[in-house]
Amino acid sequence: MRIVVDMIRGQKVNKALGILKYEPKVGARHVEKLLLSAIANWQNKNEDVKLEDADLYVKTVTVDGGSSLKRLRPAPQGRGHRILKRSNHITLVVASATAPTIITE
Q: Per-residue pLDDT for 100 more than 60?
C-alpha cells in the first residue's frame, strides 16, 4: 500500500487519478476510491469554487498500521501456526493551490 501511496504524494489530482487507474497493484483501487471521496468532500465544502479552477493536489498521504485478524493454520503433529491478516489506515489530505482549504478523509 505504501508503494502505491508514494507514487501519488504531491501530484495534481488528475495526474494521481491517471496513475492509480492504470496501476496493477491491488491497493491502487482502494486509494483511487479514497481520492475520489476526498474530491467529493472538497466539492461539498467549497460549492462556490469550480473544481477546474481550484487546481487541487494531493498534499499528504499517510498509511498507518491497522488492526490484525489472528487466525490459525493447521500444522504437522497437531500444532497450529498463527497467521496475521493485516489491515491499514489511510489518511489523505487534498488541498487547493489557490485556496488554503484542506479536507481530510
A: no
Q: What architecture is the 1-96 domain classified under in CATH?
A: Alpha-Beta Complex (3.90)
The helix (run of H) or strand (run of E) holding residue 71 is strand 56-74
Q: For the chain, how are helix, strand and coil distributed in percent, rounded to 5?
A: 40, 40, 20
The answer for residues whose C-beta is within 8 angstroms of residue 36's C-beta and 6 or more apart is 17
Contact 88, 1 (CB under 8 A): yes
**Residue 28 grid cell:** 491502487
Confidence of residue 49 (pLDDT cuts 50, 70, 90): confident
- Whether this prediction's pTM lies above 0.90 is answered by no
